[in-house]
Amino acid sequence: MPSQPEQFSPRMRPGGRWLSALELLFGSAIVIGHNVYHLVPNEVLILFVVGWLSVRIRNGRWAAIGFKRPQFWMRIVGIALAAAGLRIVLGSFLIEPLGARFWPAIEPPAGAEQIAGNLKVAMLWLLLVWTFAAFGEEIVYRGYLTLRGAEASGGSSAAFWWATLLVSFLFGLGHFYKGPTGILDSAVAGLILGAAYLVSGRNLWTAVLGHGFIDTYAVVALFFGWES
């Protein structure tokens, strides 16, 4: 029988839960401080550095957040595609129509209106979404903050699901500029990506690819004028 994908269990040291809780609170403050109150620089850049140092010192390796080579790439890609499809369908046919009943339309990122029909701008956006968004945001949210949230709750499987819910809420606030519907839409996207991450055995490549597929579809849709 083929061996099972490697699972990583957080190494809990004395005081580790309290330290993880403090890191989660710090990360939450940075997310809210930047996106809601505009008091600190971009949270992805800050927490990428903080998370890299923290994981390196406390956990020793990137496998702690799920950066490990999958045993079956097709399974990872399949889960990522399913997550991306679910997120796109829910966003287009449920969240946006429902949100339109109560709130203004989702505010797009600055400069997104320049993508339509402009191949050079579209390619630059694809570079941005696969680096800053897919890799950067997933390392910070699904990787670092989810790990610390789960450790603060004991590191069990249930703790990872609880942490995924909390981090999805933070991910929604991380898109505060989009307005209420956009916050809800992003929180649901974070929950779907987080669930895919856990279902795949906490392999971060699933979330990275899923995020990249979602944003690639958005860029292509804007380029061809399928969405405004």
Descriptive account of the structure:
- The protein is globular.
- Mean pLDDT is 93; it is low at 1-7.
- The protein has seven helices and no strands.
- The chain has one domain.
- The chain is mainly alpha-helical and 228 residues long.
- Helix 1 (16-35) runs antiparallel to helix 2, helix 3 crosses helix 7 and helix 6 crosses helix 7.
- It is 68% helix and 0% strand.
Strand content: under 5%
Helix content: 55-70%
Largest sheet: none
Number of helices: 7
Order of H and E elements: HHHHHHH
Mean pLDDT: 93
Overall body shape:
globular
What is the CA–CA distance across the termini? Answer: 50 Å
Low-confidence stretches: 1-7
Compute the CA-based radius of gyration: 18 Å
Number of strands: 0
Integer tally of domains? 1
Oligomer: single chain
What structural category do the secondary elements indicate?
mainly alpha
From the structure above, extract its key features.
single chain, 228 residues, mainly alpha, 7 helices, 68% helix, disordered N terminus
